[in-house]
Amino acid sequence: MQLLHAPSSPHLSIQTSKPQHLTWGFLPSVTVNSSPFSTLHFSLHSQKDQRLLWTPHKRVTSRAASVEVGDSSVSTGTAEGDVLKALSQIIDPDFGTDIVTCGFVKDLQIDKALGEVSFRLELTTPACPVKDMFEQQANEVVAMLPWVKNVKVTMSAQPARPIYAEQLPAGLQTISNIVAVSSCKGGVGKSTVAVNLAYTLADMGARVGIFDADVYGPSLPTMVSPENRVLLMDPVKKTIIPTEYSGVKLVSFGFAGQGRAIMRGPMVSGVINQLLTTTEWGELDYLIIDMPPGTGDIQLTLCQIVPLTAAVIVTTPQKLSFIDVAKGVRMFSKLKVPCVAVVENMCHFDADGKRYYPFGRGSGSQVVQQFGIPHLFDLPIRPNLSASGDSGMPEVVADPQGEVSKIFQNLGVCVVQQCAKIRQQVSTAVTYDKTIKAIKVKVPDSKEEFFLHPATVRRNDRSAQSVDEWTGDQKLQYNDVPEDIEPEEIRPMGNYAVSITWPDGFSQIAPYDQLQTMERLVDDVLEPSVQA
Start and end of every MIP18 family-like domain (predicted)? Predict the structure, then answer.
């Protein structure tokens, strides 16, 4: 038997001409189905002799697969297998997995007689910072095959859509990522960062929108100069049509013809909700929300009505700024919104060959260290950065090759990479494995993976249908849930929970925190149900 590396993802469809059985070995034999598409058989020969063996299996399929490769593609090297094997040498630096396993290879067409190969690489975002590298490497590795004379690679991106679009207002159902730029303190340059980040992402090839959520003091009308400075209403659909500047869609209360708002908190929350959810944003890869200062009703309303993918924190070097920023980071943490980067604005300036720190040092580093935020970006004091904010043309548009623009390019790459990782973690956090009849859980930002019995999850529902809201008495009894119950669908609910649909039509909201406290299936419980 030949020793091979087995495919770890359903993105590759393997079809054999005859039904065969797939076994992987570590004796004593225990067959483990890690997904509905593959069967693993472990055999432990000794503690010092562990070998991973693979023999052909029945057809493995996936809805995500774009090509079907015969069994001989892996064992004997057909044309399809040659191409996919060559492409599997290209590793996505964000996911740490090859592009075949990631499911990026689509529409593979081969004419071996003419030596022609064509395929499409569908990336997670058009702003992918390594798309040019992928295209070049794909051409090179396939062209190296001895029978290949011509290679045609087409680059594309996945359609703009959130992971759980059907649960959102219509205006937000075609937005892939929503990123909050927040400081929880006024005057630190949050709007400057939000606007320049948005136009940096647009320059990287993404479809971008900006939502100015500060009703009391909107900054967007000052920082950009669209030709049409008034939001329009579609009289038929009763929706808001955003204005545009340099290809980026813009919505702000300042464009509503009302100037700055003078109203109480509940009214402001309603205005923000209406502006955000009834706007015809169209397909966007990134919607940047310029959050208002503070951690009150308005901020909580935004976080609750919008499925925030991530947050970028803006601060300045002073200790006073750190105190307020820390409150915002804790708010996002409670709402399960990952903070992916810290921008320390006005950190220094250079003069007479020296570097000066007029506001002190260390606030940004303190946020990173205390809260474990992975990336820190320093923005220097530059007169042109301030002037561009007043002129209506963002600095990254006015001087795309300047020092400040390079910093924002690095920030843009960070946001793109982190959003892609977060989406991938959320989409696979909770899944159901039919072969072992268990729910697999791997909470984002956690290395722990565990299994739960479906009946255990169903019995732990804490909604009003299962628990009396007044007395706290359990309405759903143990025997009301059959032991062989299986979920019909599991869908992400933001970064904090999943929605599980059961055969009786009930939709259960299961927060990650609750799943982590449930009784888990252990190895000796799993083994009898998964043996061959």
Answer: 82-153
